[in-house]
Automatic annotation (TrEMBL):
Taxonomic lineage from the root: Bacteria, Pseudomonadati, Pseudomonadota, Alphaproteobacteria, Hyphomicrobiales
Protein name in UniProt: Aminobenzoyl-glutamate utilization protein B
Species annotation: Mesorhizobium shonense
């Protein structure tokens, strides 16, 4: 049963739904990637200030992060957050055909999860909770953080280490559904695991020491006939291949762990008769435990050292992320799932279904009467989802998959819930290309049901924490018990972040040139 304040919040979201839809499309069209979300962060900061929030810009030393507060008197503080980073190489228009956003190539950034809807879904809940607090005189504070670079698990370990999640009665974490059975539910016991991400930089700054001919050294070492140092590109390639070759020997073949890599810089794009002076490769390790992350890091360190020595270079390791595995809180999960149950699973209109059928055909499939998978429009309890999730996991594995909300869970009772995003059923075994889900995440008729449902769930959860002291205390008591005394307790895992924000690397981004604003890899039409 909803309180009067909760009814006010639900009505508020219905009233601002057209705005939420337009805002979602705005962030979708920005399509900015990790550590370079300048327009997206500025949009949120301006919006929050207009809504009466005090905003710290560049929180935690991250230019595209922020921390906003709104207070209605002494009372508990509830946390929510926005993500807004997109993914390079996924530029897709909000259209029923495969095409990049106007003026860009497919190599530009695009929203895949989509974080555009994630952030606005949380923002809608924030604004509705504020409206209800004002109308009904509810005391307390709302904290809303802007979290850049989620795709590299970037901001949350830094915010956590710098105290931005301290003092919360509860943290509400929303994510669009991305894998069954986690659709329209909350996580129960098995939360996401740990992750380490780092950049290995190879530097060839003393190539003259590579070869030393006896008595007949060329007066110009760079001559075409002279022996030349291999350079940083060679080091990077050896690092890449050695790590691929040794992947099966890094950890045991269980636990659902993974490692992936991305080359950020390779020789400054030169092809002159000179050794490449600089190269950089990023690794992301997703594992259930910190000990597993440390083991893989040790292997990568050895590979980097060997590659550097073989190529006459030196290497540096720079941290991008060191994040902890998640901590469960049944009380918070129950509060949030009760809110989601009150709202109900999202429902798609006939307009949305018609759009989805058009996408089915344009993606090489066949139009079906109901183009969406069945699970999108129904709830599944946290306990039932947990039981299904555990079928594929060994009993000893506590954490599974990857997301950096986990760092919040060690500072406040945290709920992690999922709302269905539009996803097409696979008819006759047809596999849809990635652009399909990206497009459905930007088309208003298909993504709005998720955003509205998430906003209402966030608002109801926040107000329950503010109004219901018994529920709030229950979540905190469980947090204290699980951590062995709360923050600093005997079972508490302290922040792992011992590095500065990795903002000064060659992260993919949009650039302004005489051609105008473009992706750093120009579109063919503007090259």
């Amino acid at each position: 049963m909803t309180s009067s304040a909760q009814e006010t919040a639900l009505a508020c979201i219905d009233g601002i739904q057209p705005l939420l839809s337009a805002w979602t499309r705005t962030i979708f069209d920005f399509g900015e990637t990790a550590w370079r979300e300048y327009q997206s962060a500025a949009w949120y900061v301006e919006r929050l200030k207009r809504e009466g929030f005090s905003v710290e810009e560049g929180s935690g030393g991250m230019p595209t992060a922020f921390c906003a507060h709104w207070t209605n008197g002494d009372g508990p503080t509830v946390g929510m957050y926005a993500e807004y980073d997109a993914v390079p190489g996924n530029c897709q228009d909000a259209a029923t055909v495969k095409r990049p956003r106007p003026g860009l190539s497919v190599e530009a950034g695009g929203h895949t999860d989509p974080h555009s809807g994630l952030g606005i879904g949380s923002l809608g809940g924030l604004l509705a909770a504020k409206a209800a607090m004002l109308e009904h005189g509810i005391k307390g504070t709302l904290r809303f953080t802007g979290e850049p670079a989620e795709k590299v698990r970037g901001s949350k370990p830094i915010h956590a280490a710098k105290g931005y999640y301290d003092g919360l009665a509860g943290m509400i974490s929303f994510h669009p559904f991305y894998m069954l059975p986690l659709c329209n539910t909350a996580r129960w016991d098995t939360h996401c695991g740990a992750a380490y991400a780092m950049i290995y930089r190879f530097v060839c700054d003393e190539p003259e020491h590579w070869a030393r001919a006896a008595g007949d050294s060329a007066p110009i070492p760079q001559a075409h006939s002279a022996v030349r140092a291999p350079g940083a590109n060679d080091a990077l390639m050896m690092m890449y291949m050695a790590s691929k070759a040794l992947r099966d020997s890094m950890l045991t073949h269980q636990g659902g762990w993974s490692i992936s890599e991305a080359i950020l810089t390779a020789g400054q794009a030169t092809a002159d008769n000179l050794p490449a002076s600089l190269s950089e490769i990023q690794y992301m390790i997703r594992v259930p435990t910190i000990a597993m992350a440390e083991q893989v890091t040790a292997v990568l360190d050895r590979n980097a050292e060997a590659a550097a020595r073989m190529s006459g270079c030196r290497y540096e390791r720079h941290w991008v992320s060191k994040s902890r595995p998640g901590l469960a809180n049944h009380a918070m999960a129950g509060i949030t799932y009760a809110a989601l149950s009150t709202v109900g699973a999202p429902q798609w209109s006939e307009e949305a279904r018609a759009i989805a059928r058009e996408v089915q055909v344009n993606a090489g499939g066949e139009a079906t009467e109901n183009p969406f998978i069945d699970e999108l429009e129904r709830l599944i309890s946290p306990q039932e989802a947990e039981a299904i999730l555990r079928r594929d996991l060994p009993p000893s594995q506590v954490n599974s998959t990857s997301d950096d909300y986990t760092d919040m869970s060690w500072h406040a009772p945290t709920s992690r819930f999922y709302v269905a995003r539009p996803a097409l059923r696979s008819a006759n075994g047809h596999v849809y290309p990635a652009w399909v889900m990206n497009a459905l995440g930007g088309i208003s008729a298909t993504i709005d049901p998720m955003v509205t449902c998430a906003s209402k769930t966030v608002a109801l959860t926040a107000l329950r924490l503010l109004e219901d002291k018994t529920a709030r205390d229950g979540a905190m008591d469980e947090f204290v018990a699980r951590t062995g005394g709360g923050v600093g307790g005997s079972n508490w895992i302290a922040p792992l972040c011992d590095y500065e924000p990795p903002i000064n690397f060659r992260w993919p981004e949009y650039v302004t040139t005489p051609r105008g604003r473009d992706w750093w890899i120009p579109a063919a039409s503007t090259a």
